[in-house]
Amino acid sequence: MQDIIHQPGQPGLSPPPRADLALCAQADPDAWFPEHGFENSIETRTARRICGGCPVRVPCLAYALGRRERHGIWGGLTYAERRQLARGTERAA
Questions:
Q1: 1 in a domain, yes or no?
Q2: pLDDT tens for residues 23-51?
Q3: Parent domain of 77
Q4: Number of domains the chain is built from
Q5: 74 — phi, psi (to 5°)?
Q6: 3-state secondary structure (DSSP) of residue 84
Q7: pLDDT for the residue numbered 3
Q8: DSSP string, 60-73
Q9: Is the pLDDT of residue 19 over 60?
Q10: What are 77's strand-pairing partners?
C-alpha cells in the first residue's frame, strides 16, 4: 500500500501523494492545520514556503481538491483558496 500524506484516500479519487517524497513529512504537522483565524501565522507561511518547493505539491493539491478536503494546507493552499480555485475551474468548464 502506498504511503500517504495526512489521511487515507477514498476509492475513485486521485491517489494520495507519496509521503516519502513530501517535504511536509519532515516538518511539524501542526503547521499544515492552522486554527481558524490563524491562516497567516508564521507556521502557515512556513508551510506554504515548504509546499512551494515540494516535488508532490501538484498531486497533493489535486488530491485535496478531489476529496474536497476542508481542513489544512494542501499543495500550498488553504481550504478557502482551494474552494475559490475549484469554483473558478467549474465556471471555466
A1: no
A2: 988 888 888 888 776 767 888 888 999 99
A3: 23-92
A4: 1
A5: -130, 130
A6: helix
A7: 40
A8: HHHHHHHHT--SS-
A9: yes
A10: 74
- pLDDT (average), residues 1-24: 59
Interatomic CA distance for residues 35 and 45, integer angstroms? 14
The Cα 62–Cα 35 span in angstroms is 23
Considering the domain boundaries, does residue 44 fall inside one?
A: yes
List Cβ neighbours of 38 (8 Å cut-off, separation of 6 or more).
Answer: 44
Which position has the grid cell 494546507? 73
| Amino acid occupying residue 30 | D
- Within-domain flag for 9: no
SS3 10: coil
- SS (HEC) of 32-59: HCCCCCCCCCHHHHHHHHHHHCCCCHHH
11 versus 92: the higher-pLDDT residue is: 92
Task: Work out the average pLDDT over 1-23.
Answer: 57
- In the predicted model, what is the mean pLDDT of residues 66-88? 91
